[in-house]
Write a structure and sequence with these properties.
Elements lengths: L1 H11 L18 H24 L13 H19 L7 H14 L5 H20 L2 H5 L13 H9 L6 H9 L1
Helix pairs in contact: 2-4, 3-4, 5-7
C-alpha cells in the first residue's frame, strides 16, 4: 500500500517510481538555475527602476499576482528552451524552469519600487518618529535590533531633511540583511 502511494506521488511530481521509492532525474535547483535567476534579478532591477520610477508607467512591473516580469521571463525561457531542444542543445528541464520562475517571482518584488521604498524608509522612519514620541524609545525601539537601520541621529535627520552626502557605511549592514 505504501509503495503504491509513493508511486502515485512520484507520478504526480513527474518522477519515475523505483522499488526503493526514490525519484530519478535532475532536481529543479541547480547551480545554473541559481546563476540564471540571480542574473535575471540583476536585469530586472534597473528595468523596474526605469519603468516604475522614471517613466511612471508600469508600477506593478515585478510585483502583482502574478508579477508581469517574472511571467514574461517564464514564457521567454520556455520558448528559448524549445528552440534549444530542436537544436539538440542542453536545455532546462521543467523542474529547472519552475525553479527559475519561483526564484524570480519571489525575488522580483524585492527589487521594485513598490517594495524597496518601504524596506529603505521604514527603519529610518522609526528612529525619526521616536524623537516626536519619546515613549517609542522604551516601548518599541528597544526591541528593534541595531542592524535594522541607521540609528545615528544626524543620519536620520539628514534622511528626511536632505543635505549632505549619503553615509554608505551606516547603510551597508541593513542593505545586506
Amino acid at each position: 500500500m505504501a509503495e503504491a502511494a509513493a508511486g502515485v506521488v512520484a507520478r504526480c511530481l513527474g518522477r519515475r517510481a523505483h522499488a526503493g521509492g526514490e525519484g530519478s532525474g535532475r532536481g529543479g535547483v541547480s547551480r545554473r538555475v541559481i546563476v540564471l535567476s540571480l542574473l535575471l534579478l540583476l536585469l530586472l532591477a534597473p528595468a523596474a527602476f526605469y519603468g516604475e520610477v522614471l517613466y511612471g508607467t508600469i508600477y506593478m512591473f515585478g510585483s502583482g499576482v502574478p508579477g508581469m516580469a517574472p511571467l514574461a521571463i517564464l514564457f521567454i525561457l520556455a520558448a528559448l528552451n524549445r528552440v534549444g531542444a530542436r537544436r539538440r542543445r542542453g536545455g532546462f528541464s521543467r523542474r529547472e524552469l519552475l525553479a527559475v520562475y519561483g526564484i524570480v517571482v519571489v525575488g522580483a518584488p524585492l527589487v521594485t519600487h513598490g517594495i524597496l521604498i518601504w524596506m529603505l524608509s521604514t527603519p529610518v522612519t522609526q528612529q525619526y518618529l521616536a524623537r516626536a514620541m519619546p515613549e517609542w524609545e522604551t516601548t518599541f525601539l528597544q526591541h528593534v535590533p541595531p542592524w535594522f537601520g541607521p540609528t545615528d541621529p544626524a543620519t536620520v535627520e539628514a534622511y528626511f531633511h536632505g543635505g549632505g552626502s549619503v553615509p554608505w557605511s551606516l547603510w551597508w549592514t541593513p542593505a545586506a540583511v
